[in-house]
Amino acid sequence: MTYSKTKTSFYRRLLIAYLIESGVNTVPTICAETGMPRRTAQDTIAALEELDILCEFVGAKKDGHYQIVEWGAINKSWVKTHLRHIKDVLEYP
Q1: Would you call 64 helix, strand, or coil by DSSP?
Q2: I need a labelling partner for 36 at 20 to 30 A (CA). Which of 10, 47, 48, 74 fits?
Q3: What is the mean pLDDT of each run of 10 residues along the chain (93 residues)?
């Protein structure tokens, strides 16, 4: 099945927020987990604010990490429940 760019972009953001919340919270670990290019991971993290997901970088540049401060209108329980579908749509393992 083919999905729209809007849907895949939305799901990519949900997946990244979920991974950060789950401890996969640096760009290298996100890339390793998803197979996503570094630039895509960075751009997706920056775009979380468009969904009112507040994500902050904590610590020094070399050993810091991202953390989700606020999920906004997104129900993180829904994301967890539908994680397999989200990954299937994005064709991630």
Answers
A1: coil
A2: 74
A3: 94 98 97 96 97 96 94 96 96 86
Q: Where are the beta strands (DSSP E) in 7-83?
A: 54-58, 65-70
Q: Which of 24, 18, 7 is nearest to 71 (CA)?
A: 18
Measured at the CA of 54, the angle between CA 48 and CA 86, to 5 degrees, comes to 45
Contacts (Cβ under 8 Å, ≥6 apart) of 43: none
Phi, psi of 66, deg, nearest 5: -90, 155
What is the gyration radius of the CA atoms in the chain, in angstroms?
A: 13
Cα four-point dihedral sign 20, 18, 2, 73: negative
Which positions ≥6 away from 89 have C-beta within 8 Å? 3, 7, 8, 11
**Residue 68: which of 12, 1, 17, 6 has the closest Cα?**
17
